[in-house]
């Protein structure tokens, strides 16, 4: 049953043995293959067989790789045994023809083929060399005969991966003179992220302050209208309105102070975050930060005098109301 299967595939596999029909290995070729290291020796043998180097490197050419390995091992065996270079060339041609004729036959037929080839080459190859080579063939090739037949006659299953890949064409190509080293670009991107976060937070705090001021003014007007409509403006009503206004004003000022403190605190945090970024040496030292204006003693005294005058004026107004 195996014989019929192998014979059926033999003609299909004949093309896989793409050796030149008139292969001749010269004295120098055999010597180079045997003396070079394994990789270079196999490459030289492939060149003699008129094969491209990709046959050795590509897994898709597994059969060719096995054939190359088979011939290379024969040459190495002969060289190790000390056979003359001219005899090694003849043995290599015998081994090549034997492998070609063994494809798709039974092991018994392979033995008969080998015997016939030995008889045909008995005049070209010494008897001692033929005996040694026969022992080698039966301990290697014949020992793994079924494996050789399977690999050289059975087609391998193709393992192909198909995947849809999206290709995005490059966007606008910038000129090279505007390009920056990657570490500088990374630094500027991080700095920009911090700056954008700072501006966003400043906008949120500004809206909070505006909301507090607008809400307070609306509350004042509403309370005054309610008091004016429901009661006459007596002394008690005015005192109550003033007390509520003062309390509301204190609450508003307290909330505004909280927002301002938060604004200063977060501004400092953003500043520290910026300065803690490792600045590339190529950009030089960081620019000086703008310091808050220093008021002179005269200016501070003038400010205190104005505040004192406002306080006195406020007290006088309260006495007049009483």
From TrEMBL:
Pfam families: CLAMP. InterPro entries: CLAMP. Residues 277-322 are annotated as: Disordered. Residues 304-315 have a biased composition (Low complexity). It comes from the Eukaryota. This is Uncharacterized protein. It comes from Holothuria leucospilota (Black long sea cucumber).
């Amino acid at each position: 049953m195996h014989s019929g299967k192998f014979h059926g595939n033999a003609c299909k596999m004949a093309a896989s043995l793409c050796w030149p029909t008139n292969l001749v290995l010269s004295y120098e070729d055999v010597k180079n293959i045997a003396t070079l290291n394994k990789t270079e020796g196999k490459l030289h043998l492939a060149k003699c067989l008129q094969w491209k180097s990709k046959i050795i490197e590509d897994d898709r050419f597994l059969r060719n790789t096995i054939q190359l390995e088979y011939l290379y091992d024969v040459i190495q065996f002969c060289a190790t045994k000390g056979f003359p270079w001219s005899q090694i060339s003849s043995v290599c041609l015998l081994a090549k023809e034997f492998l070609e004729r063994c494809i798709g036959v039974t092991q018994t037929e392979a033995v008969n083929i080998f015997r016939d080839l030995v008889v045909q080459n008995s005049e070209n190859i010494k008897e001692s060399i033929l005996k040694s080579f026969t022992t080698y063939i039966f301990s290697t090739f014949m020992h793994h005969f079924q494996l050789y037949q399977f690999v050289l006659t059975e087609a391998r299953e193709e393992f192909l991966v198909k995947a849809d890949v999206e290709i995005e064409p490059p966007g606008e190509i910038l000129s090279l003179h505007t390009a920056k080293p990657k570490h500088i670009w990374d630094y500027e991107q991080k700095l920009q992220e911090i700056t954008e976060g700072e501006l966003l937070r400043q906008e949120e705090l500004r809206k909070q302050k505006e909301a507090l001021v607008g809400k307070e003014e609306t509350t004042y007007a509403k309370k005054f209208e309610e008091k004016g409509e429901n009661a006459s403006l007596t002394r008690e009503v005015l005192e109550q309105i003033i007390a509520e206004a003062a309390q509301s004003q204190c609450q508003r000022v307290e909330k505004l102070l909280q927002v301002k403190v938060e604004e200063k605190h977060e501004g400092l945090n953003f500043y520290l975050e910026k300065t803690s970024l490792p600045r590339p040496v190529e950009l030089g030292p960081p620019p000086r930060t703008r310091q808050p204006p220093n008021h002179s003693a005269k200016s501070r005294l003038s400010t205190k005098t104005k505040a004192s005058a406002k306080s006195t004026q406020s007290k006088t107004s309260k006495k007049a109301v009483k």
